[in-house]
Amino acid sequence: MLQALMNMISLCWKPFGGQDGGERFDSVSVIGSHSGGGGIEGRDGLLWSRDMGKCAAGDFSMAVVQANQVLEDQSQIESGPFGTFIGVYDGHGGPDAARYVCENLYRHFQAIAAETEGVVTTDTIQRAFRETEEGFTALVSRLWSTRPSIATVGSCCLVGVIFQRTLFIANLGDSRVVLGKKVGNTGGIAAIQLSTEHNANIEAVRQELKELHPNDPQIVVLKHGVWRVKGIIQVSRSIGDVYLKYSQYNREPINEKFRLPEPMNMPILTAVPTIISHQLHRDDSFLIFASDGLWEHLTNEKAVDIVHSHPQAGSAKRLVKAALQEAARKREMRYSDLCKIDKKVRRHFHDDITVIVLFLNHDLISRGFVRDH
Description:
Elements (H helix, E strand, L loop, with lengths): L1 H6 L8 E2 L6 E2 L2 E3 L11 E3 L2 E9 L2 E8 L7 E8 L2 E10 L3 H20 L6 H22 L10 E10 L2 E7 L3 E8 L4 E6 L9 H10 L7 E4 L2 E4 L9 E2 L33 E6 L4 E7 L1 H4 L4 H9 L6 H16 L4 H4 L14 E8 L1 H6 L6
Antiparallel strand pairs: 1-2, 3-7, 4-5, 5-6, 6-18, 7-8, 8-9, 9-10, 9-15, 10-16, 11-12, 11-17, 13-14, 17-18
Helix pairs in contact: 2-3
C-alpha cells in the first residue's frame, strides 16, 4: 500500500545555489508519475505536503491532495538566473496534458529566456505557452492511430514568474492566484485576485465566446445548472483538448460525447493565456497559487486569512485541509470520514487540489538572483 501511494507522486528536490554559494534554493516538480519521493515531508492518506522550502523569491509551502483515480493536478516551482517560476497545471480527461506541461513548459521558458540573456517579458511567456501547445498537439497527432483518446485530454495552466521586481501572471482556465497584501500599519491583510479566469460560468467569458462565434447559438449551453462550452467543457482556454481545436480530431474513434454534431470551422478553445504584470511592493506579503479545487470551497478572503493568521510553515497543507473540511461540511459528514474515502470515489466529494503559498522576501528579490559564471 505504501509503495502504491509513493508511486503516485514524485517530488524532485534539486538544490540551486547562487554565485557565492550562500543561498540554496529548492527546485520542485510534482509530476505524479514515478516512484521515489525522497523529498516528501508529510503524507496523510491522499494528502502530500512540503511545509517549507526556499526559492529565489522567498519561502514556499506546498500541498497536494488526490481525489481522482490518477492525480491530474501537476505543479512545479523553479529558481533560475531570471528569478522564480511557479506553475500549477490542473488536468482534465486524464493526467497526460498536465504532465506534459509540467515536463515541457518551463523547459521552453528557459530556452526562450536564454535567447534574451535572461530578460523576461510577456512575449517570453507567450512563446513558451505556444511551443508547449504545439508540442502536445504534435504528440496527439503521433498517437492518434493508437491512442485517439489523448485528443480529449487537456490542462488548465497557471504560471507566475518573478523577474527582478515584476510579477508576471499567465493563465489558461480556472486555476487562480491571490495576493495577500498588508493594509498600511493596521496589521490587516487584503485579498487581491491577480489572475483572469476562463470558465463559462463567468458571464464575461460567455460573452467573449458569443462574440467569437456569432453564428453558433450553442457555443455555450446551460446543463444541470452549469454553463459549458458546446455543452461539454467548462473552461474556454487550455493546453490540449485538441478535439475542440482541430476538426480532424473531432470524429471517430473518440467517444461520442466529445463529437460535435456540426462541422468545426474554427477552433472553439484557445491556448493563448491572459497575462498581467504586477510591480511588487513591500506591502505584498504572499501569493497563493491553487487549482480550482481549492477555490470551489474557500473564498479569496478566507484563504488569505488562514495564511495570515497562522505560522508560515505548513500554510499550503492548512489551506487544503480547510477546503476538505468545508467539502465534508457541505455533505454533512465528518472530515475524518471524508479522509477515509479512497481515490476515484473521493472525486464525488472534492477535486484534486494543489496549493503553493509563496512568502515574498523583498530583500532577496531586490538583490536579484546572481547568475553562475
